[in-house]
Amino acid sequence: MTFEGKVILVTIGVFVIIMAFHMVMRKILKVEKESWFSNDYVNEGHKKIDRTIRISCLVLIFVQFIIQAEYGFFNLAWYLKIPYPVILYLIVSEITKVVMEKKYAENKNKYLVTTFQLLFNYILICTLIATRVFGWLV
Hints:
There is one protein chain. The chain has helices at 3-29, 44-71, 83-104, 110-130. By secondary structure, it is mainly alpha-helical. The mean pLDDT is 86. The chain crosses the membrane at residues 6-25, 82-99, 111-134.
């Protein structure tokens, strides 16, 4: 199998695992289904905070792109590469969602689903990256 085929297969597998984990957690904690590709804000404050985080991340990515263009794309430290602000954005955004759900959500178990999902996704992705998908993508 080609490298590209393996990457596609791993991506589909990770997506299925993440979705299955999310569905199981929702059922265990009795939380209603959310829409996958929309922003489910708890209130207007959450919406404003999330927009501020998004704009900050976009500005950071733009600044990093300028730095990379100036100094070369391959000669930078790991924390100055573009994927890291995106990962940071995802983590900060989800933590913000957890805090807002804990304070303001009608179903108090909703924040637990988000917390477990964030931790599971983080551990899964870090494990796959550290092991190079258990040696399969060497």
